[in-house]
């Protein structure tokens, strides 16, 4: 009889990840009767749900310089002056 709780616990541990992975993959839409947020100031139209979920360049900027692969000597900075 000692093995029954062990089997129940193992079944529960296996079932929880399976149930958690059952996600809905349909596109997002507003509930019936609800509306999307108002259009931003000076916008020509109200953005839809996919446009609202896109990250802006300010939120996720592109990398503008390549990472350095080795040490390099820094060039002199003419604006790096000691405080007066």
Set down the secondary structure blueprint.
Blueprint: H1 3-20, H2 49-53
Description:
With 84 residues, the chain is mostly helical. The chain is 27% helix and 0% strand. It contains two helices and no strands. The N and C termini lie far apart (83 Å).
Features:
0% strand; single chain; 84 residues; 2 helices; mainly alpha
Condensed summary:
The chain has 84 residues and is mostly helical. It has helices spanning 3-20, 49-53.
Helix content: 25-40%
Number of strands: 0
Please tell me how large the radius of gyration is.
28 Å
- Binned strand content: under 5%
Output mean pLDDT. Answer: 77
Tell me the span between the first and last alpha carbons.
83 Å
* Low-confidence spans: none
Give the CA-based shape: flat
| Structural class label | mainly alpha
Quaternary organisation of the protein chains: single chain
- Please, how many helices? 2
Listing every helix as H and every strand as E from the N terminus to the C terminus, the arrangement reads HH
- Please summarize the sheet with the most strands: none
């Amino acid at each position: 009889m000692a093995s029954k709780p062990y089997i129940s616990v193992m079944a529960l541990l296996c079932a929880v990840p399976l149930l958690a992975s059952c996600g809905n993959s349909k596109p997002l839409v507003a509930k019936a009767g609800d509306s999307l947020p108002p259009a931003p100031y000076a916008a020509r139209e109200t953005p839809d749900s996919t446009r609202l979920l896109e990250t802006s360049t300010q939120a996720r900027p592109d990398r503008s310089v390549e990472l350095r692969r080795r040490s390099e000597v820094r060039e002199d900075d003419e604006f790096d002056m000691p405080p007066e």
